[in-house]
Amino acid sequence: METLIISHHEISKLLPMGECVGVMEETFMTLARGxxxxxxxxxxxxxxxxxVLALMPSCLPNPSVTGAKIITxxxxxxxxxxxxxxxxxxxxxxxxxxxxxxxxxxxxxAIRTAAVSAVATKVLAKEDASNLAxxxxxxxxxxxxxxxSTVRPIKRVRVWSRNPEHAEEFARRESIRGRxxxxxxxxxxxxxxxxxxxxTTASTSPVLMGKWLxxxxxxxxxxxxxxxxxxxxxxxxxxxxLFVDRRESTLNESEDFKVPKKEGLIGDNHIKGELGEVLLxxxxxxxxxxxxxxxxxxxxxxxxxxxxxxxxxxxETARVGTRVSFSAER
Length: 330
Hints:
Blueprint: E1 2-6, H1 8-14, H2 17-33, E2 42-45, E3 52-60, E4 65-73, E5 85-93, E6 99-104, H3 105-124, E7 131-135, H4 139-151, E8 156-160, H5 164-176, E9 181-184, H6 187-191, E10 196-199, E11 218-221, H7 234-239, E12 241-244, H8 247-253, H9 255-262, E13 271-274, H10 275-279, E14 293-296, H11 301-318, E15 322-325
Helix pairs in contact: 2-3, 2-11, 3-4, 3-11
């Protein structure tokens, strides 16, 4: 039996942002209908706490596939040649359990994470939202500029980083690509007057404060998926109309939610709905121009599995990737 190996070099062509947004919309509606199997992720921290190994399994009904993302997250890789997220997504078919593909997880994670934020922005941000602030200057910062531009008429982009030199370099690099990006030394100044704010850091303490949030802003908080990472202060969560990718995952994994809950400032009912419920019309998204909306993303295995299978099918058609005899047949 042959298995298709798909590297990061091929994924950017096989999974354009606009197409991934559509795949994520379908995935969230599948989750909201209760048709997917989506357990909580399992994580193992290394003894020195430099990195974490995560196992994220899932099963989807249409297409009928199951699989898992196995990934390491090393936040300290920012100043190295390596991505912070490294690993693979394994895709199996559900008739005989054959391993169809092994797909680079770094590229899939980068694209699908930003595409999920685009879905949230599409249903929660104001229609004319055009000013964007990005807190963070890594790969997700770049991907989120592309993703936000896919669903809203972005005209102005600001970036902030805890390292001002990184923000300046990011702004120069993105401007060369044709995007006008301005670097700010203050996160508060970067956020001021913006319609969309995306937090894409690996911070363990808040970088976005609730007192900075202006009426009508939409926030995508994506950088903190597991403890001890946290990007929002409690006031930011309390002031916002909160939507999530999945309730169970948020309640168990998100420090951005768990900290204000522990402080007694919010309860579980502060979560207004999941993205899939909004897409299906079961839950109303933005109700007024002045509402502050917040999408808290922790990242789901179903997102990775759906994206990886989409990449696999396109790779089959385009005849790209490397085929290997991976498993023996009787």
